[in-house]
Write a structure and sequence with these properties.
The complex is a heterodimer of chains A (about 550) and B (about 575). Chain A has about 550 residues and is an alpha/beta fold. Chain A contains 17 helices and 20 strands. In chain A, helix 1 (about 30-45) packs parallel to helix 10, helix 4 crosses helix 17 and helix 7 runs antiparallel to helix 8. Chain B contains 16 helices and 16 strands. The chains are: A alpha/beta (about 550), B alpha/beta (about 575). The complex binds flavin-adenine dinucleotide (2 copies). One flavin-adenine dinucleotide binds near residues 28, 54, 78 and 505 of chain A.
């Protein structure tokens, strides 16, 4: 009698996702970029499987109950920098489904040790008012420079985010066409420090601007990427928060994939990209499942895609090189999250600071900022640190399920390698971060703190295998890894030298953060190569740029 | 002006039952919208990565629904459904040094060997019921118990002819006698089980599978719960939330809308009919009113639905009182999750539970049935947390990672969940915050006891501990009344047509067009896709849903005016 069901544990009692399947397209990694590619391609009529290692899709778009029980944080991407531009938002009409971004006017404040402060706002005149307390000249300078920089973003950089990169020579030629383009070329040759020093005079203002310009990975003293300074500063005053948590954006994209007949397979780490004579054949997962497909998009960086997933003898020389020389981010993040009874209240001359989406602490002059980045790049959490803090629940109360509680974080750049290792130094660094925060914040005493939790660079890598060494952008921002060189100049518009293998993640042009560029561009290439229906149109700001600079 | 959104069906609550009914109805071609209060659907089907790389189960943990028609009807395999089947599901450890590995459906030899060693006379006991029923018989019995809508009110049927007893009689004529229908599982254990630790295991297992062993007339429900557990002998790959993903994705693929951060504040009733819902002020959705042309389905608990969302003017006072009096006793759990480097080695013995056949769920200390009863008495009679002595603290200690590598990184293990019974917060004799105030005290007593049982569970071995009380569960998921995993008591007076109360027993309510689809309706808790499956029969009766050829009704389904089905005897 027993033989009927007493078999071995591979017997199935219900139908499961097959051991072997076939899709038109497989996307490796369900981060923002993988999901964006997947959503466009699924709606183009292709059968799409997005294959994700974690139990939750989203990659850097995660919202987790890290302050258990009852309090949620966004341990990775929190500030959404491109919501006015992201084509997915309008192409899929995501707001109609209840996806909202809150972009408060009070954007980025800085609190200095003498209790002076400034609040940079989305409304430039408000930013000027704030700076005028410190320096009338800088207030006027900000007004002037932002009129140009906002145009630089609107007219050149934002459109460039959603178009394939150009070879450097063509890029220069294109930009030479207009005065604005020539200004971009001029800035490119400058370092962030030179740019902010040229524009502003007061050192508090310079320090603030320098931090904002470099916080996402620019080296403050390196030239060659100066065109990103206007972008970073404009975006620092245009950030938004995803209501309900960043993961909702991932959920919205996954919904679009399923509505179009695609699927997302989670808990399914890809361990192999199957390549046969230079042509992609599919992927294999850790549990032996094989998904056949002649098109695979990988959102992972070259050392993972080519160094690990493709069999060595199938990796072309230029990709071996890309994998071998790839530089991960020069620094990662350490984030201290706290639950408090009272929201943080800053020690300064302007109560509006408390409302700012981001508050900078620990800086008084440019040297503070320079030494902060210097020390972190050298592998230390020094004693002159600068960080940015946010009350996550201020504009999104849904993140706390416990009435009356506030959830906030202080985030600092941090080296991946640290003496003694992160796990053993957690308590000490938590104390260090709290001390830094308390210097500028009145009420973060023990009595007010209900719970705390530190996410270290090692933790980032533990959650997201794509972010090796805690690389939030899958690879450093330096002139050799940006523009047409990201990830390698043999990969254009997401196409890799292996037939059918595309790259769609943060390690591809234009780069990291939730800007959606790599996923969008790769989807365009796939549709073109497969002759599928390109159902979407480039947004207006992109078309204007094409007319003005590329035609 | 944009007009308010309008759907055929609006579902309140995107937990297990809400998402499943949405998938069913969307598959029927109805425009369906789920409104979920939290930022994420899934309800009690949740896995949380508090600490990077470690997934804990704050609520649901095992797949009980293996026999659900939903897997076939909704074709969840298409949406990524995958299982991991375990070599051993259950084990026993006592304070006085005994251990037994009970194996699983896939490895009955392990359990047999343990019984031969510990208690040969129990080789033939209730453990053999699964064997005797066989795969098909078990499925049939489970479907009769759980996947059968309650009979229409007024259907005359003898208890012995209720669907599950019919199936039982059909398959086990030799075991049948009339008194069974009134027995409790404890009576049964006293009669048929010899080894005390095995009694404790069975009592605990029954209770954690649904029906309390002490409740009269719930013998087969208790056994059935254990059979649900045994039938699948495993969990979805990655945890229960992955199963929720499959359901949600199925619903989306069929065109359902799933809106999160959208708490419902009110069910709009016009002329005695539910016509839509009003969202809370802070809901994140373009319209604040959502209209439902065919039905409003409340997939949140019956008390919130009736007392919170419907204007009291629509209900009579005696009805309201009876809703308030529905008992919440039963499944309020104190849930601990422990990250550690080594699995518990009970009594320091490696060979007790070798890792390749490590029991996923260990009941310990299982010395005495009386200990289990004490915990129940503390929670439900004295209405307080159990006394912090081993004789009151029998625990279920669960782990998945020996079989599912996605749960944690190599070199670590996660014991999640570890359960203890508690009173529902509002019943606590010392006030609803009492258990939360005792959180640390209870946790350290439980961990001290764990160390007594398994000496390697030292502070050095334990990396992190996360605790979730019934009150915390209520915060996380406002639908989880009493932090009770089946919402309301699954006793005979709150079961089948009596669940939650007889007037609501067939998912209909006094308000036309308003249906119930939460664990507070039959057959209760667990992620079985059973409430929605059963409700489908009623929606078909009412002309709301017209499924295609993929649909099949329950064999023991009795339509209005029909007479009870009789299996040939
Ligand atoms: C602490 C922190 C703070 C940040 N803050 C911001 C911010 O405020 N604003 C902002 O815009 N950006 C921020 N970022 C950066 C942003 O999250 C990333 O740049 C972005 O998520 C990159 O998107 P992606 O889709 O390319 O890759 P990812 O988001 O990394 O997604 C890749 C996916 O691939 C999966 N994966 C990995 N290996 C495999 C495999 N073998 N098989 C299958 N799947 C695999 C991963 O699990 C992951 O889901 C932050 C990041 C971190 C870590
Ligand atoms: C500790 C514990 C252990 C468990 N173990 C298991 C197990 O091992 N296996 C198993 O199968 N089951 C298990 N369960 C049971 C299982 O989780 C529940 O039975 C199941 O989740 C019930 O589903 P539901 O849809 O009825 O309710 P829920 O899952 O509670 O869903 C209700 C949903 O409604 C939402 N909601 C509430 N109010 C509103 C409102 N006003 N507007 C909009 N939305 C609202 C909630 O946020 C929630 O998402 C366990 C439960 C607990 C607590």
């Amino acid at each position: 009698m027993r033989t009927e069901y007493g078999a071995h544990p591979t017997e199935h009692i219900l139908d499961e996702f097959p051991e072997r399947t076939r899709f038109d397209v497989v996307v490796i990694g369900g981060g923002p970029n993988g999901l964006i590619s997947g959503a466009y391609l699924a709606r183009a009529g292709l059968s799409v499987a997005v294959v994700e290692r974690r139990q939750e899709i989203g990659g850097g778009l995660s919202t987790e109950e890290t302050l258990f029980p009852g309090h949620y944080t966004n341990p990775h991407a929190f500030y959404h920098m491109m919501t006015e531009y992201l084509p997915i938002l309008s192409d899929f009409d995501l707001a109609a489904h209840g996806l909202y971004f809150v972009r408060p006017n009070a954007q980025a404040a800085a609190v200095f040790s003498d209790s002076t402060s400034l609040v940079l706002c989305n409304h430039i005149e408000d930013s000027k008012d704030a700076i005028a307390k410190i320096s009338e000249a800088d207030a006027r300078a900000l007004g002037r420079v932002m009129r140009t920089w906002r145009k630089v973003v609107e007219e050149i950089i934002a459109p460039g985010t959603y178009l394939p990169s150009l070879p450097p020579i063509d890029m220069v030629e294109a930009l030479e066409r207009t005065p604005l383009g020539r200004e971009v070329l001029r800035l490119t040759e400058m370092s962030p420090l030179e740019i902010v020093s040229e524009v502003f005079t007061d050192d508090r203002v310079r320090a603030t601007m320098l931090y904002l310009a470099c916080m996402w990975g620019l080296d403050p003293t390196e030239s060659g990427l100066g065109f990103m300074v206007p972008l970073m500063i404009d975006r620092a005053m245009s950030k938004a928060q995803c209501y309900g948590g960043s993961h909702k954006l991932a959920g919205a994209l996954s919904r679009e994939i399923h509505r179009s007949g695609g699927i997302v397979l989670d808990n399914a780490e890809v361990t192999q990209i199957l390549v046969d004579n230079g042509q992609v054949r599919g992927v294999a997962c850790f549990d032996g499942r094989v998904i056949e497909s002649s098109v695979v998009l990988s959102s992972l960086a070259p050392p993972l895609t080519f160094g690990r997933l493709v069999a060595p003898d199938e990796v072309p020389a230029e990709m071996q090189e890309a994998a071998a020389y790839w530089e991960w981010d020069k620094w990662s993040f350490a984030t201290l999250s706290v639950v408090t009874d009272e929201a943080p209240h800053y020690r300064c001359d302007d109560p509006w600071v408390d409302d700012a989406l981001m508050v900078l602490v620990g800086l008084d002059d440019t040297e503070d900022v320079l030494s902060h980045f210097r020390e972190v790049a050298a592998g230390a959490m020094g004693d002159r640190l600068v960080g940015h803090a946010t009350v996550e629940t201020r504009y999104d109360p849904t993140l706390s399920r416990v009435p009356g509680h506030h959830v906030s974080f202080l985030q600092l750049h941090a080296p991946y390698d640290i003496e003694g290792g992160w796990d053993s130094r957690e308590e000490e660094i938590t104390a260090q971060l709290l001390a830094l925060w308390r210097e500028r914040c009145k009420n973060l005493d023990e009595a007010n703190i209900v719970m705390r939790s530190l996410e270290t660079p090692v933790d980032i890598e533990r959650r997201l295998a794509s972010m090796v060494r805690g690389s939030i952008k899958h690879g450093d921002y330096n002139p050799l890894q940006m523009g047409a060189f990201r990830p390698h100049d043999s990969c254009v518009a997401g196409r890799s030298p292996i037939q059918g293998l595309y790259l769609c993640g943060a390690s591809s042009y234009p780069g990291g953060l939730v800007i959606g560029g790599p996923g969008y561009i790769a989807a365009g290439s796939v549709v073109e190569d497969m002759g599928a229906r390109k159902w979407w149109e480039a947004p207006r700001f992109v078309r204007r740029y094409e007319e003005r600079y590329l035609s | 002006m944009v007009s308010d959104p309008r759907f055929d069906v609006v579902v309140i609550g995107g937990g297990h039952n809400g998402t499943t009914i949405a998938a069913y109805l969307a598959k029927c071609g109805l425009s369906t919208c789920v409104l979920e209060a939290r930022p994420e659907c899934g309800g009690g089907q949740e896995n949380t990565e508090v600490s990077p790389g470690f997934r804990i189960d704050p609520h649901a943990t095992y797949l009980y629904g293996g026999a659900a028609p939903g897997f076939e009807q909704l074709e969840l395999w298409k949406y990524g459904m995958r299982m991991v089947y375990y070599q051993s599901m259950a084990g026993i450890a006592t304070l006085d040094g005994q251990v037994a590995n009970m194996g699983s459906r896939w490895r009955p030899d392990i359990g047999e060997e343990s019984m031969r060693k510990n208690s040969p006379q129990d080789l033939e006991g209730p453990n053999r019921i699964f064997d005797q029923l066989g795969e098909a018989g078990t499925k049939e019995l489970l479907r009769a118990l759980f996947w059968t809508p309650p009979h229409p009110a007024g259907t005359e049927v003898e208890p012995r002819d209720l669907p599950w007893w019919q199936v039982f009689r059909k398959h086990m004529p030799n075991l049948w006698f009339d008194e069974l229908v009134d027995m409790s599982y404890l009576d049964f254990l006293d009669t048929f089980v010899h080894w005390e630790p095995l009694k404790a295991l069975n009592a605990m297992a029954a209770w954690y599978c649904g029906a309390h062993p002490a409740w009269d007339g719930m013998l087969l429900q208790s056994l059935g719960g254990i059979l649900l557990f045994t039938y699948a002998s495993g969990a979805p790959r990655g945890g229960m939330h992955t199963y929720a993903h499959a359901i949600i994705r199925c619903a989306l693929a069929h065109g359902a809308r799933m809106v999160t951060n959208a708490p419902v504040d009110e069910i709009i009733v016009r002329d005695g009919r539910a016509v839509g819902v009003r969202l809370a002020e802070d809901a994140a959705f373009p319209g604040k009113t959502v209209w439902a042309d065919k039905a409003v389905i409340s997939a949140i608990d019956v008390q919130h639905t009736m007392l919170g969302l419907i204007g009291r003017g629509h209900l009579d006072p005696s009805f309201i009182q009876r809703i308030s009096d529905i008992s919440l006793k039963g499944g309020s759990l104190f849930v601990m999750s422990v990250v550690c480097r080594e699995l518990p080695r009970y009594h320091g013995r490696d060979e007790a539970f070798p890792e390749e056949v490590y029991p996923s769920c260990v009941v310990a200390p299982a010395d005495s049935l009386e200990w289990v009863k004490r915990q129940t008495r503390d929670a439900y009679s004295y209405r307080r947390a159990p006394e912090l002595r081993p004789e009151h603290l029998t625990m279920m200690i669960c782990t998945h990672d020996p079989y599912d590598s996605t749960r944690c990184p190599d070199g670590y293990h996660v014991l999640s969940p570890i359960y203890l019974e508690m009173p529902p917060p509002i019943y606590d004799a010392s006030g609803e915050h009492q258990v939360n105030q005792q959180k640390e005290e209870i946790t350290s007593a439980a961990l001290a006891l764990l160390r007594q049982l398994a000496p390697n569970m030292t502070d050095g071995n334990i990396v992190e501990v996360f605790v979730n009380t019934p009150e915390d569960s209520e915060f996380r998921n406002t639908g989880m009344v009493g932090g009770n995993w089946y919402g309301i008591r699954q006793s005979d007076d709150q079961w089948f047509g009596n669940r939650p109360i007889p007037e609501l027993g067939r998912y209909r309510t006094p308000v036309d067009g308003l249906y119930l689809c939460n664990q507070t309706s039959h057959p209760g808790g667990l992620c079985l896709m059973a409430v929605p499956y059963n409700l489908m029969h009623v929606l078909i009766e009412d002309g709301v849903a017209e499924p295609g050829g993929w649909w099949y009704p329950a064999p023991y389904y009795v339509p209005p005016g029909g007479s009870p089905i009789r299996a040939g005897e």
